[in-house]
Specification:
Elements (H helix, E strand, L loop, with lengths): L3 E6 L6 H17 L3 E6 H4 L6 H17 L7 E5 L5 H10 L4 H5 L2 H4 L10 H16 L4 E3 L5 H17 L9 E3 L29 H9 L18 H6 L5 H13 L4 H15 L1 H10 L3 H29 L3
Parallel strand pairs: 1-2, 1-4, 2-3, 4-5
Helix pairs in contact: 3-13, 4-7, 7-8, 9-12
């Protein structure tokens, strides 16, 4: 059975985009595949956040979201990235084999390279740490979105170079696993939903806060009686990622025929989220303050992940005469 790896950062509150594009698909895969690892990437988080207390707060919130969404800890190794210290040792050696132009051409770096003074080495080196995450656990498939596909290509290139340089087959050559059914999830401003854009909808927020987020969705100034193009509306584009086909078509006709106000559309989206995630919201509120319970789950995951990592590290260190 092929080993599948999924990682998610803890840079802020997880949102609908994270849930639909990463968390739900990973949980469904883990039900079918008993060889799945899921980790919270708190080391990666330091590329953008520097407050340890805040990062830890988001880490526990992320863990709670995964559990509330139904992650089966008996079928999945669930742990935090920093608990496996060997990841940093492996990253350093892989750094020494990675050509500078490979990282300079990475999308995440190029997008911000106009102002190099604001870029830390960690952000530049992000793909190598991600490669170490993948190779340390002898991963076959990595669940990613299309925007992360290049990082898997980099991981493959580095793994091949390591194996060729040291005449070994130590590292598996990974492949990306992209769910083609997952489309871009728009944020409240129409751009891709992202914590960095502050345009998220957090389905686990208190009802008042959740409604406030939904009411902040940007719309045009058309009056309720005017016909509207649903595909150009941020509310509808979020709504259709969650609703059933019948409800989507009904809402679409209301837009096209006129008589629909944006407040009605926002209220409908709010009710949809509350009802669709009722069970998950209840579970989240039940365990969100159970830090010892979450710690124990992550500890069990750490021990299982460490066992896999130790096998790789033993061969790695022996090969390099460490």
């Amino acid at each position: 059975m092929k080993r599948i790896l999924t990682g998610v950062q803890c840079t802020g509150d997880l949102h609908i985009g994270n849930i639909l594009s990463v968390i739900k698909p990973a949980i469904e895969l883990s039900k079918e595949n008993g060889n799945t690892l899921v980790f919270i990437a708190n080391l990666h988080t330091f590329t953008s956040k520097k407050n340890p207390e805040l990062i830890n707060q988001y880490l526990y919130k992320a863990a709670t979201v995964w559990l509330a969404m139904g992650l089966d800890i008996n079928k999945t190794i669930f742990f935090k990235q920093s608990d496996i210290s060997g990841i940093c040792e492996l990253t350093w050696i892989l750094n020494c084999l990675t050509p500078y132009p490979m990282l300079a051409n990475a999308h995440a770096f190029k997008e911000k390279s106009n102002n190099l003074a604001d870029i830390n080495v960690g952000l530049f080196d992000y793909p190598v740490l991600m490669t170490a995450d993948i190779l340390l656990y002898q991963t076959d498939l990595v669940t990613v979105g299309n925007d992360q596909k290049q990082h898997i290509e980099i991981a493959r290139d580095i793994a091949i170079k390591f194996n060729n340089t040291f005449n070994t087959d130590l590292f598996k050559i990974p492949s990306e696993l992209i769910n083609e059914n997952v489309k871009l999830i728009p944020g409240t401003d129409g751009r891709k939903m992202s914590k960095s854009y502050n345009n998220i909808i957090d389905i686990f927020a208190e009802e008042n806060e959740l409604k406030k987020e939904i009411m902040s969705i940007v719309t045009d100034s058309k009056k309720p009686e005017e016909p509207k193009n649903p595909d150009e509306c941020n509310i509808f584009n979020i709504y259709k990622t969650l609703a059933s086909e019948d409800c989507i078509e009904d809402m679409r006709s209301k837009y096209i025929n006129g008589g629909l106000g944006y407040k009605y559309a926002k209220d409908t989206l709010f009710e949809l989220i509350i009802n669709k995630f009722k069970k998950e919201r209840e579970e989240y509120n039940k365990i969100k303050n159970e830090i010892k319970y979450i710690d124990e789950i992550l500890k069990v995951g750490k021990e299982k992940a460490q066992t896999i990592a130790n096998e790789t590290l033993y061969k790695f260190r022996k090969l390099l005469h460490f």
